[in-house]
Write a structure and sequence with these properties.
CATH architecture: Alpha-Beta Complex
Radius of gyration: 17 Å
CATH topology: Spore Coat Polysaccharide Biosynthesis Protein SpsA, Chain A
Structural class: alpha/beta
Shape: globular
Order of helices and strands: EHEHEHEHEEHEHHEEH
Helix content: 25-40%
């Protein structure tokens, strides 16, 4: 691609053969209707199913779709970080392979980036944005763990944001470079780290409402919730001990 696209859509994928096809179709259909330039970048996290075959079949004779086929499973945080740093877009959006937050939510983000914002995220929690909605709510246990976990996350790392985990976040090229070159968390707590680093480096975070549909075929287990709590403790430690570097004056724009 000779000229950097306006938008890179990054999709982390681990054993997504059943869902990635319809997600790619929805994203590709949306992007083809836009006036801005774009690319889709799928990052495979050491898959053991036919995810790659689905992607290559879909991408056949289509432009601006590429992928990274890493053979080793490293975790979602590592995968998103790899995609953010490999992307070429002026704006870099990651979205989950289940398409629970529809790609059309970028319609809300684009004016914010055009006005100069560097980080925009969607939230499923009405305490963040009154119009946020979960069209199909999560099961009670997941909601309870999520609420308790969020209070812990706010105390430890990211105050004032009630939904740090919605899988629909976008960064300017500059903020992506600053944040994801410093990020260390490879697991599910990477969202928390990215937002904590955005705050550390002085980037304002614009929170926008999600109209979100839970996918019951999720890769997130109960063990992952507790792993995220531990990763949050590590983020607090890194912040407190200066393990994260300072903001670079270099720009990628």
């Amino acid at each position: 691609m000779s000229e950097s696209p306006y938008l890179s859509v990054i999709i982390p994928a681990y054993n997504e053969e059943r869902r990635i096809g319809r997600t790619l179709d929805a994203i590709h259909t949306y992007l083809q209707q836009q006036t801005f330039s774009w690319e889709i970048l799928v990052v495979l996290d050491g898959v053991s199913d036919n995810t790659l075959d689905v992607i290559t079949t879909f991408a056949d004779q289509k432009e601006h779709i590429r992928w990274i086929d890493r053979k080793e499973n490293r975790g979602k945080g590592y995968t998103v970080r790899e995609g953010m740093l490999a992307a070429d877009g002026t704006v870099r959006l990651f979205t989950d392979a289940d398409n629970s937050t529809d790609i059309s939510h970028f319609d809300l983000m684009r004016p914010e980036f055009d006005a100069g914002i560097d980080v925009a995220i969607c939230s499923r929690d009405s305490k963040d944005v009154s119009t946020a909605r979960q069209a199909v709510p999560q099961p009670f246990l997941k909601r309870m763990l999520g609420d308790l976990g969020n209070l812990f996350i706010q105390i430890m790392a990211v105050r004032g944001i009630w939904d740090t985990q919605c899988g629909f976040k976008a960064f300017s090229a500059e903020s992506a470079q600053q944040i994801f070159t410093q990020a260390r968390i490879d697991g599910w707590g990477f969202d928390i780290e990215a937002l904590a680093l955005a705050r550390r480096f002085g980037y304002a975070i614009k929170v926008l409402p999600a109209d979100w549909i839970d996918d019951t075929d999720t890769h997130v287990s109960l063990l992952n919730y507790f792993g995220t709590f531990w990763e949050t403790v590590k983020i607090r430690w890194y912040l407190s001990t200066g393990k994260y570097g300072s903001k670079s004056s270099r720009t990628t724009r």
